[in-house]
Structures are given as C-alpha cells and as structure tokens.
Amino acid sequence: MSEYRLPLREILFVLDELIGVDTVSGLTNLPQITKDELNTLFETAGKFASEIFAPLNRTGDISGATLKNGIVRTPAGFSEAYNAYCEVGWNRCSANAKYGGQGLPQLINSALSEIWNSTNLSLSLCNTLTQSAINLIYHHGSDEQRSTYLPNLISGQWTGAMAMTEPQAGSDVGAITCLAAPEKYCYRLKGQKNYISWGEHDLSQNIIYLILARTPEAPAGTKGLSLFIVPKFIPDKKGNPGCRNDIECIALEKKLGIHASPTCVMNFGSNEGALGWLVGKPHNGLTTMFTMMNTARLAIGHEALGIAERAYQQAKSYAQIRYQGKDDNNKPLKIVEYPDVKRMLLSIKARLEAMRALCYETALSVDLSINHPEEKIKTLHSNRVALLTPIVKAWCSDGAVEITSTNIQIHGGTGYIEDTGAAQLYRDARITPIYEGTNGIQALDLVKRKLMINDGFDMYSLIEEMRQFDGVLSMSSERTICAIRGRFAESGAALSRTTSFILNALKSEKKTAEAAATPYLKLAGIVIGGYFMARAAMIAEQNLSNGSGDNDFYRSKLATSLFYAENILPESSSLSLAATSGAEAIRYMETDYF
Ligand SMILES: Cc1cc2nc3c(=O)[nH]c(=O)nc-3n(C[C@H](O)[C@H](O)[C@H](O)COP(=O)(O)OP(=O)(O)OC[C@H]3O[C@@H](n4cnc5c(N)ncnc54)[C@H](O)[C@@H]3O)c2cc1C
Q1: In the chain, where are the structural domains located?
Q2: How do residues 359-396 score in pLDDT, each as one tens digit?
Q3: DSSP letters along 243-305, please?
Q4: Best probe residue, ligand 1, of 171, 401, 441 (max atoms within 8 Å of C-beta)
C-alpha cells in the first residue's frame, strides 16, 4: 500500500478557515490553542500514525486476530503499537481532565481520529469503543463507577466494549434476552452476545463491557432493558483487576474486513453468572446506551472519513505513476491525464472534502453543546448534533464504500489484487454502513425521531442557515461561484420540499415516510455537504482575489467545489423525486413476489 501522508493543509483548512477552531478555543473547560500548537500536534500525530499504525495495517489484515483456548491474540506488533499510543496520550486527548484526560475539544479529537482511522481502522476501533464507554460512564455512572472505571479506561490500561447484539436481536434490540438476576449489591448476568468488537484481546489488563440485559420482572421490548457494567476482571478494593468474571470468548467471526479487530462471540455467565452493576435507572438501559451509541455513530463517520482519505491518497498516487496510451505527439500518458480518470479522482476528492467538513462541524457542535456559556446556544447545538448524527454515520459510511470502490476502479485490475491494499480498504470500509445500527436504521432514526422532534424545526433552521448563505454567494459575480450558487439553491429547495413532504407523510402515511427515509437521508447528506463545499469555494475565491498566496490550493478547492455542485448536487433532484413519489411500488410488491 502507498505510504500514508498527513493531509495537514486540508485538515487545517477545515479547522481554521472553514469552521474556525477559535470558536471553541478557550471556551469553558476548553484550553486555548494557538495555530502553531495545532500544527505541531497534527504533525506529531501524523508522524506517529505513519510510523507506528500504518505499517501494521496490511500485516494485521493478513494474519488477523486469533483465538486459542479462550485467549484472543492480536496480530504481531499491535500490543506494542497500542502501548506506545497510550504512552504518548493519543487515546485520551478529549477525555475529561478530572479523570486523567487532556480535555481537548472534540473538534480537534475528530481530526486526530481521522488520522488513526486512515492508518489502521482495526486498531483504532478499540479506542473508539473505549471512548464511547468513557462517555457513557461519565454521563450516567454513579460517583463510585466513575472513580473506579474512568481513570483506568482513560489511561488505556483498560478498554471498553459494547455488548448489545444477540443472534435474534440485531436491529431489533427489544428482542434481547440476556438475563440479569438481582443479588444483594449487584446482578448476575447470563446470555450470549454476538459480534462484539474487541470483546476479548491481549492489549489491556481489563475489558469493561457495557451490556444491555433484562431483569426477571422487566416488561417485554425495549422498555424492559437495563444497562450494566460487567468487567472481565472485577476491580478489587484498590481498584486493580481482581477475580476473573464468568465471561468467555467462544468464537471469533471470520469476516470480510477489519481482520485485526477481533469480532467475538461472548458467553456471559456460562457457570455461576457474570457479575454486573446497573448503570442509571432500571429499565432505562436503551436510553442510557444511546449515549454510547451516539458517540460511536459519530465515530463511525470518522472511520469512514479516515478510510476514504487513505483511498484518495492511493488513487491519486497510482494515477500519477500508471502510464497507458499516448498523446497525439506519441508521448506516453499518465492515466491521471484522461478526463474519465480525473472525473473519478474529483468525485472522490469532492465527496471526501464534504465528509470531512460535515464530521468536523458536527464535532464543533458537540463542543458548543457542552461548553458554550449560553443555554440557548447549547440547546441549539445539542439539537443539531442529534439531527446530524445519523447523517454523519450513514452518509459518510456510504461515501467510504463508494470512494474505496472508485479507488479500485482507478487502479484497474491491480486494484482487485490484494497486494496494492486497495482491496483491503474496500473490505474494511464495508462494515461501516452496517455496524452501530445499519444505515437503513439511521435513515429511520432521522425521519421518525430527529425530524419529528420540534416538527422539523432543527432541519428547517439548518435549511434557513443555508438560504442565508445564498445571500453571501449572491454578492460574488465570479463565474464559478455563480455556477455553484445556482446548483446550491436548487438542491436546498429540493431538501426543503422533501422535508415538508416527509413531515406531512409522518402525520398520515407513516409507511410512505419510512419508504422515503433512505433517499431522504442521502439527499440531506448531499445538500448539507454542498453547503460546506459552497462555503469552501467562497473562501477560496476570496483568497485568490486578495492574492493571499497558496494559489494552487485555492484553485483546486474551487475546482473541487464546482465539480461537487455540477456532478454531485444534481443527485438531489432524483433523490427528492424518489423520496416524494410515495410508497406505491413498495406497497404493490407483495413479499412473496420476491
Ligand atoms: C464486524 C462487526 C462488528 C460488530 N460490533 C458490534 C459490537 O461491538 N457490539 C454490538 O453490540 N454489536 C456489534 N455488531 C453488530 C451490528 O451492530 C449488527 O450487525 C447490526 O446492528 C445489524 O444487526 P443484524 O446483523 O442482526 O442485522 P438485521 O437487524 O437482521 O438487519 C438485516 C437487514 O434488515 C434491515 N432491517 C432490520 N430491521 C429493520 C427495520 N425495523 N426497518 C427497516 N429495516 C430493517 C437492516 O437495515 C438490514 O439491512 C457488529 C457487527 C459486525 C459485522
């Protein structure tokens, strides 16, 4: 696989010029960060990721995690890489300083996580789950649970795992049967959990499972689920890993990608029962678990972004070194010179940049929702995070699959051969639309929950913000900006129209709204992505006309934004049509016609 190169200019463009990292720098609980410090931070992260994470990506894919006598071993070098990662403190950048974290903004952590995911998705996933567990315990754990678990999870000595899925309970979490019987001070859990990422491994001293289970008297369905902390080794009085809990990994799944990430079938309580401690209130487990799931869903967007960036790097490197055919003067041509290959590269670059902006801007909203001094602004951003979470997860993960597939196409036959690593990126990316709630479930979450809150107010205010930006675009008479503006206005109108259609359908024809959910989510992703691309174009145009330097970078930004407007935004018309056509075909099609 080609070497990883830190996309520092791109990362800093989004952080500094497009979003404005200053917005969070120095807010309540957040440190002041200078531009020089940011530069150094990312350069150091890039160097670490290139030297330590990246070389293990392919070897980890080939050897995979293994299970022998209940012990899971990660591929050679993973344990050393994980230790080095924690020693530097990369794992705890955004964690709360009170428990040993560095308290950096989520916005910066997002950009860092892109780097880890670009270089080694399998290994990064372990820390993603730990960060999600930390967030859950921080928000819902008792004081004792926080002081027992947070410092060890934040230091990386212990890792976290999310245990929801059971063979009969995937998307339908209400079908979970894992049983939690109450004892005097705790519960005893019995049940099997499937597909548990990093459910067993050799990287840390202890593994902390957050498990959804059902107490004996609990009502059926999601309202009967409670959430438990179940440690692999039960912490002793000093907080060190003590007795082994009744937990075992009975199998590792053989799977399409992320081979180095152990996907475990876990038995909880095969003997006396696994000891677990309730988090939050009984029967409120799913709501509590949503804190972990939402953190993880945003993190999947960053996984997708990281892997898409890596695929872009590979695609552009290959297109610059592969010669095919000759020009009119008999000069050999690099494939990058062919319009169709340029088109493929631009389609990757444009989607990737829109994904990056969406991921980082959502992370900024996370920071503002927690740290802004004004309650009104906090609420606005908290609602925006809720609205954007399914879009970040689903639109970016679909994008990663498309981008890694286009990377293979740019490579031609060699892309299909494992040695180039293009195939691995595609295989690894393929999980992102599936786990943490499939993209179909994300679309339903967007339509049936997020849109419904405040009767579409959050989406309409975002659309209004875009409409106001149209006013900014209208001030430019530059040809490219005018072209972008036209497409941007059309697609914004399509999103507004389709939002009204769905809100109406939700009141009368729920099935119609459900059938429209996936095209609607894609439409929202494309149009919101277009908003960031239009903003980027405007910044580029201003810099070019001010003559502030870096002309190639800004010209490339302008070309990429124009490509997005002309080639990607038009999809909004067909998606809007698909979403608003109703569900007649789906209704007519009897299930046994298939
Ligand atoms: C590599 C890997 C790692 C994983 N890691 C974890 C983990 O760490 N912890 C954990 O708990 N789980 C984990 N999972 C499980 C993962 O979250 C589930 O696979 C996923 O939620 C889908 O559940 P399912 O596989 O049962 O599919 P199903 O729920 O059977 O879905 C099959 C299809 O039906 C659709 N569908 C289902 N219900 C509906 C509905 N109501 N409306 C519309 N469409 C619907 C789905 O969108 C999908 O297309 C992992 C899975 C894999 C493959």
Answers
A1: 454-589
A2: 999 999 999 999 999 999 999 999 999 999 999 999 99
A3: EEPSEEEEEE---SS-TTS-EEEEEE-SSS-EEEEEESSTT-HHHHHHHHHHHHHHHHHHHHH
A4: 171
